[in-house]
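Hi P.,

Sorry for the delay on this. The queue was packed all week, but I finally got your sequence through. Input first:
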Amino acid sequence: MPKLTRREMVAAVLAGAAASSIESAAAPGEALATAETIIPLYPGSIPGAIEAPDEEETRDPNEAWVYRQNISRPTLTVFLPAQARAAAPAVVVCPGGSYRGVSIDKEGYSVAHAFNRFGVAAIVLKYRTPSPRHMKNASTGPLQDAQQAMSVVRERAREWSIDTARIGIVGFSAGGHLAASASTLFAKPVLSRHEREHVRPAFSVLVYPVISMQNDLTHAVSREQLLGASPSAERIEQFSTERAVTDATPPAFLIHAADDSSVLVGNSVRYFEALVARKISAQLLAYPRGGHGFGLINPTTPDRWIDRVQMWMLSEGWITASSPA
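Then the structure:
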């Protein structure tokens, strides 16, 4: 059988893209039913945790999309693609929520379901809410969880038919900051038992991400939740991920709306520029409108960013044209 050229592979995927994007948009509460399993993030006690009551709750039961807050017991929810012919690429998905909680359905389960449509395993991370009530170090707790998630996916790759060379990370809003932190702060893992090679994502997809902690660009609520009301200049610098980009930072696809008044589009622009300056592969999709928190579907346009991500992953070699669509 003749080998397809890159252009032919892209054309083959484009042929089914329109139908795929419509199918991939699960309704509120619908995607969780397709999950393979839900497991605790840590097999035993959580390193660096303080014993405290489990105060996790749904913010408002009347909201269409479930938002969980006050999280102290982190979990992984595993979504595996159907009819995998070989070890599949995978993503760890970090929902947003201003570091107060996570929009677990809109920016978690439904996103995982969408990635499954084109052959990518997706593992949704319900990470801990930064809080001195149940963390010894609230500012590094979420990053510890993200690194633990990357490690667990690698450890269970054979069981879940995942290719360890193609494990990326996806993040939304504050979850985008967490994904960018995982992509830039892996050289010195939070837990000494983790190896940098095992917690570094192969690539990242950042959707309206909080990138910077600098005063002129940051999302104030997210910064205060993570670093406290009056963080030092050193802490601000440490967690400004655009300042932490190195030659080892993985490629990224960024999505943002220019009219986002909650998390300024400059966050994505600065991270994109930092990657380009290092000659790291990067793509930025900036919609003129859409605001913040639109999840999979920006209601101001028929364009679907998940289709663009699929094309990018194909172009970068993270998926193949034979992946299910």
